Amino acid sequence: MWLDNSPWSWEALGYALRLARARRVGLVAVCEPSVSPQDRDRAVAAGAAWGVDVEVRVPPPGSRTEWEVWRAGGEEGAEVVVAPRRTATRKVVFGAGLVWLLTNAPGPVVVYRSPKEP
Amino acid sequence: MSGPAGAFRDRMGRPVQVGEYRPEDRGLLVAMYRSFDPDQRAQGIPPLHPLRLAEWVEVLTEEGVNVVARCEGRVVGHAVLVPDRAGSHELAIFVHQDYQGAGIGNRLLQALLELGRARGVRHVWLTVEPWNGRAQALYRRAGFERSAADPWEEVWELELGEFRVSGPPGGTPDSGASPERSPGGW
Prior knowledge:
heterodimer; A: alpha/beta; 4 helices; 7 strands; B: eight-stranded mixed beta sheet; globular
């Protein structure tokens, strides 16, 4: 999944972990560079709490998060979980990176929508 | 409120009153959105499901600065400034499809920005779909400038100190626009 600092992304992580546990598979969390090392550890710990192995990947310098998510989805043959940004008026905003991923996805992409949001 | 807020006749000659949202407007505001053309939704709002719609209206009216247009016993337009986590305010505006192209959107926007400034709002931004030229023209007239763009979304911004009230108080500030439908719903 594509993990960033937004509350929607972390909520989507919970969804992805439940999905992974039900399928008895691991989860690759591709973290935007802005996700701190502590928060990367938090993602791994959240996986452990669900009994799911979480592998954290960070885009190397010169790469982009969407490219790494694309690569991970293709290499693992897995579906990808993403969470678009919700603005203050609750508009759903994708951004150029997510649009690129949706257009070039190597497999199914789950666009997570929080049941808490209107 | 003064200036763009108040009573006027729209381009179709209908009596319209633009003013700050009041709690007693809530039912009429929800009713406006329930009959809103789904094809004119923009970026996921207004929500389609009635329960989500009611929650959304509640969130906007509780968190934001809200202005509505009232006409013939109905609420026919709504504009809102919602504070974001960065200390700015995001703008959204909708005019019911039966009342578009009549100058109401411009009056709503002017009244909202004026009220926002009076409430201490300094920076306003919005997202708009690149193909929504009529909405972009509305924002441009109010002084917004595009600050970012990608194939699906554009970001427009305005410093409220630069906001200018424009147009006569008669509902014809954007004369020449036809009452065609507008994705994004203003």
